[in-house]
Write a structure and sequence with these properties.
With 347 residues, the chain is mostly helical. Helices cover 62% and strands 0% of the residues. It has 13 helices and no strands. Helix 2 packs across helix 5. The longest helix has 33 residues.
Length: 347
């Protein structure tokens, strides 16, 4: 039994799934139609209903592909065929044309007001508490509901513990604008996910996929691709810094038991993110070396899915939530446990 966890309301999650559609159903191979200026409440509800179903398919894909029995080429191909059939049936059942679905999807992804209303429609369908406005992935995945505090609002513990926690959350001398290591990690992950999604929107254009794959690598490790749209620091360096400095905090004099416990959780999630980044770079390098457009499109779909997981993590054991350990954690789980660390460090 596959469980459903509504871990992402953001539109990029749909791109890998849309690539599974057979020709004539998906419209990502042609220029998108102009998005509507606005969407009615009914149109948003229709889109939200389809989105929930797509999220279930995404979880099915992640859980099944991660299962040892499906680690063969035949198993992966079988899942792709099954999901393609399910996705085609889902779009047809919704009553939306593929073009109309794409227009609404694009409108929600580019209009903050529509996105807020869309998220509330998702909340109604899934039974989550409605809250207009941006909603963190961590909340939806069952981790603590509060969003990461702004750097200016963070009260650091005293001594060396506070110094290293500050490096993670508030300020680090070598990052762009001297932001905290976890902040720059989020920024670079967002750039990687954006360009992976752009690559996935052009599954018949090999050059475009290869260009955006290079941009993804730059955001993750600018030592490999030196020019690109990232900040020049790199997610890998940032995530490694998060793990290192949170462990320095835990090993400092005066560190409480709670600090030590949650530091382990943060460091594990950060290192899992680092491993995921290495997987993405390997996929991106294969895309850049590909000569077959179909092969590149398949790799691009995988890259887009993994890039999203840099932030959200992944429910690998299909238990309905994303945990900090077990190879599941992402930056949001690191965020959540940094907040718990702060609470445990202050009486």
């Amino acid at each position: 039994m596959l469980s459903f966890r509504p871990t992402s309301l953001l539109v990029p999650i749909l791109v890998p799934l849309l690539l599974l559609l057979p020709t004539g159903v998906a419209t990502s191979q042609s220029p998108p139609a102009a998005p509507p200026a606005t969407l009615s409440s009914g149109e948003l509800r229709e889109l939200a209903t389809v989105q929930v179903a797509l999220l279930k398919l995404q979880d099915s894909l992640n859980a099944e592909m991660a299962h040892p029995r499906n680690k063969t080429r035949e198993g992966q191909e079988r899942l792709q065929v099954a999901l393609r059939e399910q996705l085609t049936a889902l779009i047809e059942k919704s009553g939306l044309s593929a073009d109309e679905f794409q227009r609404r999807r694009f409108a929600v992804s580019t209009n903050d007001t529509l996105r807020a209303k869309f998220e509330d429609a998702i909340a109604v369908i899934t039974g989550l508490p409605a809250r207009t406005g941006a909603r963190t992935m961590a909340t939806l995945a069952g981790t603590p509901a509060s969003a990461p505090a702004a750097a200016s609002d963070i009260v650091l513990p005293a001594g060396a513990v506070g110094t290293h926690v500050g490096h993670v959350l508030v300020r680090f001398p070598t990052t762009p604008d001297k932001v905290g290591l976890l902040t720059i990690a989020h920024t670079e992950a967002k750039v990687a996910a954006q360009h992976a999604a752009l690559a996935a929107r052009t599954p018949t254009n090999l050059q475009a996929m290869q260009t955006h794959a290079g941009h993804v690598i730059h955001a993750l490790d600018p030592a490999v691709v030196t020019q690109g749209p990232g900040k020049g620091y790199g997610l890998k360096k940032a995530a490694a810094g998060v793990a290192s400095h949170v462990e320095l905090a835990a090993n400092s004099d005066g560190a409480s038991a709670g600090v030590k416990t949650h530091a382990e959780h943060v460091a594990t999630a950060a290192r899992t993110t680092l491993e995921r980044a290495d997987q993405i770079i390997a996929l991106a390098e294969r895309i850049r070396a590909a000569t077959d457009v179909a092969e590149a499109a398949t790799l691009t779909s995988q890259m887009a899915s993994l890039c999203e997981q840099l932030t959200t993590g992944a429910d690998l054991n299909a238990d309905g939530r994303v945990n900090w350990g077990g190879g599941e954690g992402g930056l949001q789980q690191a965020d959540a446990h940094m907040q718990l660390l702060l609470k445990s460090a202050t009486p």
